[in-house]
Amino acid sequence: MSLAMRILLIIISIGTLAFVISRVRKSRIRIEDSIFWVCLSMLLIIISIFPQIVFFFTNLLGIQSPINLVFLFFIFVLLIQCFTMSVRISQSDTKIKELTQQLAIEKFERHQNDERLAEDD
Question: Which residues contact residue 78 at a Cβ distance below 8 angstroms, ignoring those fewer than 6 apart?
């Protein structure tokens, strides 16, 4: 890998890390979610500084090209993140449904009580 490409990758990786940290500071992203992105940014920085790591794992796993390993790894990581987000969205949908049902029941009971009070007067 050329020196210019490594410098560009390091700058982009540090920029990604700075962006994630700024979002955490502005409370635009939860701390739990930011851990994933900070770790991913740090991994990008490490790979940018030490590209030999990718070559080592490429040879170890018998993959023909180092870029194939990088793509495979990041696709796998992002699929895991996508699955985690799907689980969280499903849980949120269930909670919203339960809260909506509970609110409807309370509203109905309040309406029933108002009608009883009107009849008693």
Answer: none
pLDDT one-digit tens code per residue, 78-118? 999 999 999 999 999 999 999 999 999 999 999 999 888 88
Count of residues making up the chain: 121
Q: How many CA atoms lie within 13 Å of 79's alpha carbon, on the beta-carbon side?
A: 6
Residue reference for tokens 């990718």: 54
CA distance linking residue 74 with residue 65, whole number of Å:
15
CB 20 within 8 A of CB 42: no
For 80, other C-beta atoms within 10 Å of its C-beta total 11
pTM for the full model? Answer: 0.69
